Amino acid sequence: MNAIIELADVQRSYGEPPVLACAGVSLTVGRGEFVAIVGPSGSGKSTLLNIIGTLDRPTTGTARIDGQAVDALGDRALSALRAHRIGFVFQQFHLAEGVTAIDNVADGLLYTGVPRAERRRRAFTALNRVGLGHRLGHRSNQLSGGERQRVAIARAVVGDPPLLLADEPTGNLDSASGAAIVELLYDLNEQGTTVVVITHDTQLAEGLPRRIAIRDGHVVADSAEAVVS
User: Domain extents for the chain?
Assistant: First the structure.
């Protein structure tokens, strides 16, 4: 399998005495997979997301993302990896209030060196890709929750990253809007994007092709394999 995520015995501890938020996680995600990482609050999901997204480094163990060994990269190289190879979608949207949809999305390319006119052209394409071509000039406070999340997804994929990380992407949405966002993530996955959804929603996770369960910093089950423990 051509892997885009490779974690080997990853541990991440915080504080003194150290508390393990990740306790020896090993897993591989292939390019083109659609995966749910599921677990209750405090299970270590957010820590795992930060490591996969190169926002944090393992205390011990190794993490390779899109072929790059995270522990071997400096801060600038990690920032470049995130800017070009990873898209992030969060529960809270994180859109700039009072800014149009097209400019919110174009800002996703601010740190890639792309000229402003090209950023806006790509933002136009990304918003059409998520079904919001008719809302380009609407400001974020003029959009529904579902539309705001679509703008956030467009911003995440405007640079066409091979890996999309979605942290509780339906958590602030009603059931109909949430279902539409999941359908959009399926569409992106079918177009070749590897999608990893972090969620505590077992119903959402059960509908996805692969489910990885986390508890107390450990992988306790993976639908691609036998039960781990």
Answer: 3-222
Amino acid at 2: N
Mapped onto helix, strand or coil, the DSSP state of residue 35 is strand
Profile the chain (229 residues) by mean pLDDT over runs of 10 residues. 92 90 95 95 92 94 95 92 92 90 93 89 94 93 93 94 94 89 94 94 90 94 67
CB 192 within 8 A of CB 204: no
In 3D space, the residue among 16, 123, 19, 23 whose CA is nearest the CA of residue 7 turns out to be 23
Residue ranges of alpha helices (H) inside the chain are 45-52, 75-85, 101-106, 116-129, 145-157, 175-190, 202-206
Cα 69 from Cα 142, distance rounded (Å): 42
The pLDDT of residue 159: 92
| CATH classification (class only), 3-222 | alpha beta
From CA 12, how far away is CA 146, in angstroms rounded? 34
Q: What CA–CA distance (Å, rounded) separates 32 from 177?
A: 24
Kindly report the pTM of this predicted structure.
Answer: 0.91
The token pair at 29 is: 């995600």
Peptide bond into 161 cis (omega under 30): no
Q: What are the tokens at 222?
A: 């993976």
SS3 content of the chain, % helix, strand, coil (to 5): 40, 30, 35
